[in-house]
Design a protein that fits this description.
It contains 16 helices and 7 strands. By secondary structure, the chain is an alpha/beta fold.
Length: 301
């Protein structure tokens, strides 16, 4: 750990938020820069994570492309163009509208690739596979993504509930989640990207960024602001230095919900005759897809 990093970590004990913000931006900027290629794009939802990566990438590559996938009318498709405009990157923004047919045709591919019928895993993999395929069709070599920020900086809703039990409990939950990333989320996303012949770069998950994130006190990650519990507090504070607060402080849905893919999977399941009132109806639909396509699933899926 270098001297500058050590100074910042010690500063967090004194709640020196500006120093922590400085280090977050410094570390993330280095990670973004080293992953930039002549033909690269940012997987862009308009949330604080992808917007930070986009803003930092644009410092080095002003024509960096932003790629958003989702259903017409979905949260991401509605918001991302406004976020791109606020960042001054609207001319670089690619919107890939997807349909029910796209989701239906992609599900067997990702199920076979990952060997699972777990609904949450598939709902995350489908939009990622579509995004990677779209990037590939546009001769993009690397897709930069914001994966890992929620785990490192306390972005999930459940962290707000855990924080009620104290900051030690919150830190332990975050550390445990980060430790599981390599064999869970990172493996899943890299496997899906590879199947679409795309390289996925995750600046939040470089080793120095992980060390920094885990060194920041939990009270700087989930904090009450205007009587509301806010996740990723310190990351949002850092983002204020690069973008309007409208982006930095906006609460955003996860990819499977923001893109509309989770709802689409439910609709496909109902169209296949599975009732929403039937517990696990989406999983049952996915098992039927696997059987129809003769896909071998992992016994634990």
């Amino acid at each position: 750990m270098n001297a500058h990093f050590q100074t910042i970590v010690q500063a967090t004990g004194n709640q020196d938020e500006s120093a922590v913000c400085e280090m977050i931006i410094h570390s993330l900027s280095e990670n973004v820069t080293k992953n930039l290629r002549p033909r690269c794009a940012v997987l862009f939802s308009g949330g604080v994570d992808s917007s930070l990566i986009a803003a930092l990438a644009a410092r080095q590559t002003p024509d960096i492309m932003l790629l958003t996938v989702g259903f017409a009318g979905s949260n991401d498709i509605e918001w991302a163009p406004a976020a791109a405009k606020l960042l001054g990157l609207e001319g670089n923004h690619i919107l890939k509208l997807i349909t029910l047919v796209d989701v239906e045709s992609t599900i067997p591919h990702v199920m076979e690739t990952l060997g699972t019928a777990d609904p949450m895993t598939i709902s995350l993999a489908v939009p990622l596979f579509i995004a990677c395929s779209e990037a590939k069709s546009r001769n993009i070599d690397v897709l930069l993504a914001g994966q890992g920020a929620d785990e490192l900086f306390g972005g999930y809703h459940r962290y707000k509930e855990i924080a009620k039990d104290g900051m030690s409990a919150l830190h332990e939950a975050i550390a445990n989640d980060v430790s599981r990333l390599p064999q869970r989320d990172i493996l899943r996303d890299n496997t899906v990207a590879s199947a679409a012949e795309m390289k996925l770069a995750t600046p939040f998950l470089e080793s120095e960024m992980i060390k920094l994130g885990l060194s920041i006190p939990a009270e700087l990650k989930v904090r009450e602001v205007n009587r509301q519990s806010v996740g990723k507090y310190i990351l949002r504070r850092a983002a204020e230095n690069l973008m309007p607060g409208e982006i930095a402080w906006r609460d955003k849905k996860a990819m499977q919900y923001g893109s509309g893919v989770w709802a689409a999977m439910g609709k496909l399941a109902r169209q296949a005759g599975y009732s929403k009132q039937d517990k696990g109806y989406i999983r049952k639909y996915l098992y039927s897809v696997a059987e129809e396509n003769r896909i071998t699933l992992d016994v634990t899926s």
